[in-house]
Amino acid sequence: MTSKLREVPKYAFLSIVALLSVGPLYFMVVSATNTSQDVLASSMLPGTNLLANWQSLTEFQDVGAAMYHSTVNAVLTTVLALVVSSIAGYGFEVYHSPNKDRLMWVLMLAMMIPFAATMIPLFQLFADLGMVNSAFAVVLPVIATPLLILLFRQSARSFPHEIIEAARMDGLKEFSIFWKMFVPTMRPTYAAAAVITFMAAWNNFLWPKVILVNSDYQTMPMLISNFTGGYVIDYGALMLAVLIASLPTIVIFFVLQRSFVAGFTGVVK
Amino acid sequence: MTPVVVPDRTPKKKSKGPKIKPSPAARRRSLTGWAFLLPAAVLIGIMMFWPMFQALILSFKTGRGSALDFADPLWFNYERMLSDEIFKMTVGTTLLYLAIQVPLMLVTALVLANILNNPRLKFKGFWRTAIFLPAAISLVSYSLVFRTIFATDGLVNDWLLALHLIDGPVNWLGNTDTARMVIILGLLWRWTGYNMIFYLAGLQNIDPTTLEAAKMDGAGPIRTFFSVTVPQLKPMILLTVIMSTNGTLQLFDESFNLTRGGPANTTMTMSHYLYEVSFVNNPNFGYGAALSYVILVMVAILAAIQMKVGDKRD
C-alpha cells in the first residue's frame, strides 16, 4: 500500500510532462478545423471550418507543389544518404586498417563543422554550377553525414565476421556480401537511419531557403514560414498548413518508432 | 584526396617472422574497402571541408555581390565585428539560450529516461511516445504554433487571465525577457524527448547486475542513480551535450519564425544575423563568412572543453 502511494508523484510528474508535450500538438490539430476567431478564443474543441481553412490556404498558396518538392528532396536525401553512409560505415569496419581509421577520424571531425560556416561557399559553388533552385543542390550537402557513417560502422561491428569469411569461401564478391548479407541483416539500423534522415531532410529550413531562390520551388517549411508575412493572419488556415507540413514526419515516426529506438541502442557504447 | 593509391601495409610491418607478402586477394580486398569509403569521403570533402576553407578565405574579402577583393587590411571584417553592436548582442543572446536551456533540458531528459527505464512502470510505451512526439514536428511548424499560442490574444494569455494569474494580457513576444523565455520554452518542448530517447538507449546498455549490486550494498535509488547509472551513461551524456551545444549555437529556425528576431533584434541568434547579413537586402558574403567563423570557433572551443571534461571524470 505505502509503496503504491510512493508511486503517485512519479505518475503525476509523467502525466504533466506528457500533457505539456502533447498539448500544443493537440491545439494545432483542433485549430486546423476552427475559424481564426476560434483559434484566438483558444477553442480546444474541433470545429467545422476545415474545408474553409483549406480553401483559404490554397487560394494563395500552392500546397501541392510545396508537398511535392519536400517529398522529392526528403526521399532523395534519405535514399542517397543510406546508400553512401552504410557502404562507408561497413567499409571502415570490415576492411579496417590504420590508414582507414585515420580517414574515419578526419571525417568525424566534420561533425564539428557548423553548417553556418559552409553555407556561403556552398551557395557560391551551386550558383557557379547553375544549380540554384535544383533538388540536387538541396540534397548534395546533406547526404554524407558523419553520424550515419558512425551508426553503420557500429552496426557492422556486431555483424559476425565468420559470415563474411564463409561467403568469401563460397566465392561471393565483396560487394555482394555487403548487399546480400549485410543489408538484409541490418534492417533495424537502416530503419533508424531512415527515420533520422527523412525527418531532418523534411524539416530542413535554412539551406533550402538559401538555395531555392525561386518561390516556385519552395518546400513546406518555407511555405508556412512565408505564410505569416501578411497583415491579417488567418490562424485557422495557418494551423492547417502547419498540420499538413507535420503529417509525413509524424506518420513515419509512428510506423517506425520501435526500430528507431532499437537502432539507436547500438550507436554509443 | 587520393586515399585509393595508398595500399594498406600493416600486415607486413606487424609480422616479425618470415615476411609474408599480402596475397593478391587481400590487396584486392583492401582496394575494395577504399572504394566503399570513396563516395562518402569525397562528398564530405567537397561539401564540408572545402567550403569551410573557402569561407576562411572569403572572410578576408570585401565587396558587394560576387565582386569580391581582398580587404585592406585583411582583418577588416573581423575588426568591423568589434564595433557591430547587433552582432555582439546576438552572441550574448545565443550564449544565454545555451546556458539556460541545455542544462535544464538534459537534466529533465535524464530524469525522465530513468523513470521510463524502470521495468515496473505502467504504460511505458505511451509515456515514451507522448514525450518524444514533439521531436517529430519541424522547427518551423512548432515555432509558428508557439507564436500563435503566445500571441497577445492567444491561448496562454486567455488561460492565465481565466486563472487570474495575470491582470491583463502579457505581450510575450513584444518584450525582450519574455520573448527570450518563450524561445527557451520552445526549445525545451521540442528537444527534451529527443534527448530522452538517447538516454533510454544508453540505459538499455547498462548491465542490470551493477544496479542490483548497488541495491544489495544498501544504496538508495538516488545514490544508485548518481554513482552507478550516470557514470555508465557518460558517453551518451557527452554526445548529447555536444549535439545540443552545436545545435544551440547554430539556432536559426526559432529566431527567424517564432520571434522574427524581435523586439529590436534582442532575441536574434548568431545564425539568424549571419543569414540577414549574407542573403537579405545588401548581401555581404565577406562579412557573413567572418561571422560564420566566429560560430565555427565557438563550436570548436566548446566541443574541445566538453571532451576534455568528459574524459577527466574517468
Strand sequence of the main sheet of chain B, in spatial order? 1-2
Share of residues in helices of chain B: 55-70%
CATH superfamily descriptor of the largest domain in chain B: MetI-like
Helix-and-strand structural type of chain A: mainly alpha
Strand content of chain B: under 5%
Low-confidence stretches of chain A: none
User: Helix fraction of chain A?
Assistant: over 70%
Q: Element order, helices and strands of chain B?
A: HHEEHHHHHHHHHHH
Distance between the termini of chain B: 37 Å
Multimeric status of the protein: heterodimer
How many beta-strand segments of chain B? 2
Spans where pLDDT lies below 50 across 5 or more residues of chain B: 1-16
Specify which chain pair forms the largest interface.
Answer: A-B, 88 and 93 residues
Number of structurally distinct domains of chain B: 2
Describe the model:
The complex is a heterodimer of chains A (269) and B (314). Chain A is mainly α and 269 residues long. In chain A, 75% of the residues lie in helices and 0% in strands. The mean pLDDT of chain A is 87. In chain B, helix 8 crosses helix 10. Chain B has a two-stranded antiparallel sheet. The two termini of chain B are 37 Å apart. Chain B has 2 domains: 56 residues; 236 residues, MetI-like (MetI-like fold, Orthogonal Bundle), CATH 1.10.3720.10. Chain B has 314 residues and is mainly alpha-helical. At the A-B interface, helix 1, helix 4, helix 5, helix 6 and helix 10 of A face helix 2, helix 5, helix 6, helix 7 and helix 8 of B.
